[in-house]
Amino acid sequence: AEPRLAKDTAVVARLLEVLVILWRSVQKALRQNEEAEKYTVAKFGSVLVKYFQALEDEQCMVPLIQLASFMPPAAVPTFRCLRAWFCSPSSNPSHLLPSPCPFLSPSCGVLSKLRRMEPGAPAARYSQLLDCVCSWGQAADVLDLITDWLTQALPKPGEKEDSSRKVRIQETVEAKPELALAYLEYLFDHKATREKVLALGERRLKRLHAALGSWRAVLYAHLSRSTADPRRPSAEAALGGFVYHSRLGAHLQHSVSFLHVQARTGAFL
What we know:
two-stranded antiparallel sheet, (spotted green pufferfish) hypothetical protein
């Protein structure tokens, strides 16, 4: 007979959350002890396969994904079948594939979930996904998504403004500048993810910095009008773009070229 505990998903979810807390408390020590880290990863990797298959409730999936984010993707074979859950519009874990399927990059399904997230979603819905992608070394993919959304949502000169612009990144989705800024806020506000983003190199960071800087014109247009233009991106998004343009510039101020950009920003103010 199936254990009664396995049927009490609320209790199991809380136990998994305790495991997440315990892992985080010893994470630094594990990194300093390679043998202990390999042993722990091997043990958890072998059982996570069964956990993902047996625990189909979404409240169990969140801590399971957190546990998985602590380990290298290759240590968790179940990631081969996670894309079905991540890409499901309803996020129903019953869509998990029960049988082996062709190898898929673990970040693929997570990024699809981030793309499909609705603007205004609470941070709890995407924070763990961002943590996972960054811990798997795929922060560049998230930054590209943010940059593309911010760029595609900008009004184009000589083009009829349309708030429902589309951006193509493997799949066609609506550009979501407010959500892009929410992702960026989370990435910048947490040390672990911020370090991953700032370590990506000048090319990607300059592209993001330029995209954020372009929102100054949108902000200026809002400030110059007495009434809001529904065809333009919101004033809140424009202000957020300006704020994070300055914040990213502060992180990059050691570069002479970025100091020059900051001087122009000061002149704009």
